[in-house]
Design a protein that fits this description.
Elements lengths: L4 H31 L17 H24 L13 H21 L15 H28 L4 H15 L1 H6 L4 H24 L4 H16 L10 H19 L12
Helix pairs in contact: 1-2, 1-4, 2-4, 3-8, 3-9, 4-5, 4-8, 5-7, 7-8, 7-9
């Protein structure tokens, strides 16, 4: 694989800009927690607002490269659902992660993991979660999928591109994790899961006509699934999800191949 060095370099510039733009959110986070407290059933710190950072970074760099027309084209990809063919790809886009999290809950029960005696599943909140997290996922995926992934895939394999973006994606969330007062064990397994999720997003993106909407939908369902766990996600254990995601990623890499993640081994 090869591409123009400047295009590949722009992906690394994007990552650097992401960290730079995230810095104010990380710094303001502890101050906001102290002086602007708010009570919500969802444990999200102020610094979780970094979801806007990939959108900002991609828009800035796209404007520099292609002007307003480039930014408009980038944002238009949010609604590129017509590229998803065949329609059967909608099944993993919207169904794979809810099934995975349901299995993780079953594993937790089977192994005696910490769960409430009378678990609350906020199913009625699912539509609200979907709308909120669709917005946040859109801002993230305009950057990760709309800007960065193809620039990396021009030089590296799809699996490698997923790993690279996954590591960056995981790293920028560590500070919000700490500010949400999660344990180091929880953060470790959650961010390892993040890397695996990114590989799956690249797999879906490549097979669904390079659709950013596909990436947004999958990303949305991850967040929705977390907060539908008992008591608004308070008993979610990422270790069990990591186990299942590792199996899924290994299966995907074998069946579709690490080079493109889009050449099904048993295609007729």
């Amino acid at each position: 694989m090869s591409t123009h060095p400047a295009i590949t370099k722009s992906a690394w510039t994007f990552f650097g800009l992401v960290f730079l733009l995230a810095l104010p959110f990380w710094l303001v986070g502890p101050i906001a927690e102290r002086f602007l407290p708010w009570e919500t059933p969802i444990n999200l710190p102020f610094s979780a607002l970094i979801f806007v950072v990939p959108l900002l970074a991609a828009s800035i760099l796209t404007y520099r490269e292609h002007g307003f027309d480039g930014v408009k084209a980038l944002l238009t990809r949010v609604a590129d659902y017509r590229q998803i063919k065949p329609w059967t790809w909608y099944i993993p886009i919207f169904g794979l992660l809810p099934a995975t999290y349901a299995l993780a809950y079953g594993l937790m029960r089977a192994t005696g993991a910490s769960l409430p005696e009378n678990p609350l599943f906020p199913i009625a909140m699912a539509p609200v979660f979907f709308v909120v997290f669709f917005v946040t996922a859109t801002a993230e995926e305009v950057g990760w999928s709309g800007y960065a992934v193809d620039r990396l895939q021009g030089r590296w394999t799809a699996l490698e591109a997923g790993l690279i973006i996954g590591v960056v994606w995981a790293l920028i969330h560590i500070v919000p994790d700490l500010q949400a007062h999660h344990t180091l064990t929880w953060i470790t397994w959650q961010r390892l899961s993040t890397i695996l999720l990114r590989i799956l997003i690249v797999w879906l993106y490549n097979n669904a006509g390079r659709s950013v909407f596909a990436a947004i939908g999958f990303h949305t369902m991850d967040n929705v699934s977390v907060f539908l766990f008992p008591n608004y996600g308070s008993h979610y254990d990422p270790f069990f999800v990591w186990i299942l995601l590792a199996l899924i990623v290994a299966t995907v890499a074998y069946l579709w191949g690490p080079k493109t993640l889009a050449r099904y081994r048993f295609a007729v």
